[in-house]
Amino acid sequence: FRKDDFQNTTNDGNAQCITIAVDNENNVTEFLAQIDLTRLLVDKIQELADETKNINIKMLEQMADHSININKLLENRKRVIILYCFLRTFTTT
Fold first, then answer.
1. Structural domain boundaries enclosing 60
2. Least trusted range by pLDDT, from 37-41, 56-60, 63-67
3. Which of 2, 20, 25, 42 is deepest in the core (most CB within 10 A)?
């Protein structure tokens, strides 16, 4: 909407109310078109927010999987070192 086309009824700093001349069909049609556009934009924002959440979840899952793999690798290396030390004690005596 062009603010100049409508009369501002209140302005409390938080919200601005706009009076629409309902006897003028063009104003009502434009108002309803703006509502439809706003709904489409809200839906698109919601879709992008959901997509962002899903990407974030996948990234966190990959990081968790990577962390688990590192822990398994460290555990396996620890076992190898223990086994090596154990075998070394028998071969040196």
1. 3-92
2. 63-67
3. 20
